[in-house]
Amino acid sequence: MSMNQQNDPFADTGDSDSQPTSYIHIRIQQRNGRKTLTTVQGVPQEYDLKKILKVLKKDFACNGNIVKDEELGEVIQLQGDQRVKVSEFLTTQLGLSKKNIKIHGF
Amino acid sequence: MSDDLGFDPSLKKKKKSKKVEDGSSESTPVPELDDMLSGLKKKKKSKKIDGDEETNSPVPDDLTASLGDLTLKKKKKKSLKNVDATDFEQQLEEAGVEDVSGSNNNATIDGESSNGDEEGIIPYDDLLSRFFDILKKNNPELAGDRSGPKFRIPPPVCQREGSKKTLFANVQEIAQVLQRNPEHLIQFLFAELGTSGSIDGEKRLVLKGKFQPKQMESVLRRYIIEYVTCKTCKSMNTELKRESGNRLHFLSCKVCGSTRSVSSIKTGFQAQVGRRKRV
Ligand SMILES: [Zn+2]
């Protein structure tokens, strides 16, 4: 066996999770001042967003609303940085897989 | 021997919780070498030594090492390390060094670490040097030689610009170190930070919103994991190519030759913030 061989037999590894079917994206945006906004995009259709929003608002004690985006569907908006809490909610309460949730931001 | 290994000094600094678990290798002056070999032994002898996760080879831990004092979270680092060990073993095996390691094994385990008068047995230290000479000659990256400061990522320099904006002064430099088009990196920053911005006359990035260097660092780290490091060998010496014909991007490793596809940067949903939409 030669030590300077360049082509690698493992070339296809580590990539299985990079192109899944659909992700739930949790993002943060800065608003005026130090206020922030959390958005949740891509919650599967079978879930009732209105009901979820209601629970989230109560649990996190924050305001929120649902925005319809032509391309991306219905998106939940919450005031403040609720990213971790939303992610926890989605996994524990809705039984969604953590692998399908992508938290963005800093 | 220890001096010409070309190890990144920052690597050495980090390794403090490390024990030599093999009594017979005491005679070796260089702890790093021990590590590498114990990695090999583990593989060969299969479960001879267990529970020595701490003593993994430091070499492929590119990200941690290069970010240096940017301090990866402990948890993360642990898991990375474990993965590295296996990857590294695979690489070594791939590189065809089994024979050498095999003889090393015998020498060590029989307790004949460094007495050359035994017949037909090459002294342990000589084997080590030979091993590293060959490794350095043919796979310098694996021997820890990663051409100096090339892969050391400078910490992001962020200043406030007025009350609502942030100046990211060294984007260009960072993109250059990562061998990425600054446009690509900036596009990622915009998408992740949920903001927009512009480039000023000195090629610095002006971002809308207030961001701390620490926050920028964590975004950069994610960029590196997603768009820079090779998942096979953890090297950051990679290239991002665009396949002509389709819009897919491929990350190809300059060290091990492995290729993977990467997803394009998507901004996704952006909420309407600040002033109402002008109608
Ligand atoms: Zn590689």
From TrEMBL, chain A:
This is Eukaryotic translation initiation factor eIF-1. PROSITE patterns: SUI1. Residues 24-94 form the SUI1 domain. Keywords: Initiation factor, Protein biosynthesis, Translation regulation. GO terms for molecular function: translation initiation factor activity. Residues 1-21 are annotated as: Disordered. Pfam families: SUI1. Belongs to the SUI1 family. It comes from Scheffersomyces spartinae. The keyword Protein biosynthesis applies. The gene is SUI1. GO terms for biological process: regulation of translation. Additional factor that functions in concert with eIF-2 and the initiator tRNA in directing the ribosome to the proper start site of translation.
From TrEMBL, chain B:
One of its GO terms (molecular function) is translation initiation factor binding. Keywords: Initiation factor, Protein biosynthesis. GO terms for cellular component: eukaryotic translation initiation factor 2 complex. Residues 148-259 form the Translation initiation factor IF2/IF5 domain. GO terms for biological process: formation of translation preinitiation complex. The keyword Mitochondrion does not apply. Residues 1-70, 93-119 are annotated as: Disordered. Residues 101-114 have a biased composition (Polar residues). Belongs to the eIF-2-beta/eIF-5 family. This is Translation initiation factor eIF-2 beta subunit.
